[in-house]
Design goal:
Blueprint lengths: L7 H23 L1 H7 L9 H4 L3 H17 L1 H19 L5 H28 L3 H12 L1 H20 L1 H19 L17 H13 L5 H19 L6 H27 L4 H21 L4 H25 L3 H62 L1
Helix pairs in contact: 1-6, 1-8, 1-9, 4-6, 4-15, 5-6, 5-9, 6-15, 7-12, 7-14, 8-9, 11-14, 11-15, 12-14, 13-14, 13-15
């Protein structure tokens, strides 16, 4: 049963822990040039220092959802925060590149546990009326974290070196664990007698993605992540040079604002999946318009608002469609998996289309992907009504 009153202090603390999880990506991305100077022998391979943290999510997203449900959400979240703090502290020593890359790959396990356990815990400590806002707030954690890193983290790293930012991140993760430890409730872990094996993992993948409830948000999230980061990365190249910096900074901020304002208001009147479908439809239409007028800044900003509706409501949809904490954890695990796949493939795919056919082809492809996300949600809604 949902609580009668939302524990907003706890929600904010979990969200702050989420900022640290997002920084597991952002801390390396924001100081990429400084990292390249620290490892001059790495060449283009230094890019792996940014992306390897997502490797665990590609292969273990669903498994993480299942394991977190078995371990217990409180234990998993606190353990992942402490492990993340330890990895960041060791990375601050700037070890040899192979060691650093190994640490980044292992750090992905900490990141994965947090992004599965944290929204599951938020859903458990919020009343139904406040849950839409709380989970939409959670959905802003990546954008807010990157903004903080740009404003505070990059100057810190520039002034005192990469190690300073990595140590600051370690302190943030440890502080989050200390603040949450006495406050997190103990949500009963899932009772599962069968051990995890290769065959059981395959069965669980099938069960989750075949479920129009558990896997719904994850399926839509794949199409969202194929487009969001890749559009932010590639669209500025076809804008007027004097507008690029403004658009790069404004699009993610507007996405968050739209999610927390228009998105939350819509969630008071519509099902979360309906808001996601509306966001996909709006985004697809605007992406198609940009295929004909790539330099229109207003269309770019409007597109980020449409994507913001998809972002926040997708997290709310998992809790809305699934009552059991274990099912919610599995749903967030699916989102972690499909999100990492989308982030991994989206930019190379759209970059190749941009190179072959120009901006019109790239934005048309993005429009098709976004439309498919909406179509997938409509199809899953039809399946749910038939069950």
């Amino acid at each position: 049963m949902a609580p009668q009153k939302t524990q907003w202090t706890l929600v904010i603390l979990i969200w702050l822990a989420g900022l640290g999880a997002a920084a597991q990506y952002g801390k390396m991305a924001i100081m990429f040039d400084l990292l390249a100077r620290a490892y001059p022998e790495a060449g283009a391979g230094i890019g792996w220092a940014v992306s390897l943290v997502g490797l665990a999510g590609v292969f273990l997203g669903v498994v993480a959802g299942l394991l977190v449900a078995r371990i217990g959400y409180r234990r998993a979240l606190l353990g992942a925060l402490w492990i993340g703090a330890a990895f960041s502290a060791v990375q601050a020593l700037l070890p040899p590149l192979p060691v650093m890359l190994g640490l980044r790959a292992l750090e992905g396990l900490s990141h994965l546990a947090i992004v599965v356990a944290a929204p599951t815990m938020i859903a458990e400590v919020t009343a139904i009326r406040g849950r839409g806002f709380a989970l939409t707030l959670w959905g802003s954690f990546f954008g807010v974290s990157f903004a903080i890193l740009a404003v505070l983290g990059l100057p810190l790293a520039t002034s005192f070196g990469p190690a300073a930012l990595l140590l600051a991140h370690a302190v943030w993760m440890a502080a989050a664990a200390l603040l949450l430890s006495p406050r997190l409730p103990r949500v009963e872990a899932a009772v599962v007698s069968a051990p995890i094996s290769a065959s059981s993992v395959l069965r669980d993948h099938w069960a989750i993605y075949a479920s129009p409830r558990i896997g719904a948000a994850g399926v839509g999230w794949l199409f969202y992540t194929l487009c969001f980061v890749s559009i932010l990365t590639l669209l500025p190249f076809v804008l007027a040079p004097d507008m690029r910096a403004f658009v790069i900074g404004a699009m993610p901020i507007l996405s968050i604002v739209a999610s927390l304002t228009i998105g939350v208001w819509l969630l008071r009147w519509l099902a979360a999946t309906s808001v996601v479908i509306a966001g996909f439809a709006l985004s697809a239409a605007l992406a198609l318009a940009l295929a004909f007028d790539a330099g229109d800044v207003a269309l770019c900003l409007a597109l980020s608002c449409g994507l913001g509706l998809v972002q926040g409501a997708s997290f709310a949809a998992v809790a809305e469609l699934n009552e059991a904490p274990s099912a919610r954890a599995a749903g967030y695990g699916a989102m972690a998996q499909t999100g990492n796949i989308g982030n991994l493939l989206g930019t190379p795919l759209l970059a190749a289309i941009l190179g072959a056919g120009g901006n019109g082809a790239m934005m048309t492809a993005a429009a098709v992907m976004l439309a498919l996300g909406g179509v997938a949600h409509v199809g899953l809604a039809v399946l749910r009504r038939r069950l």
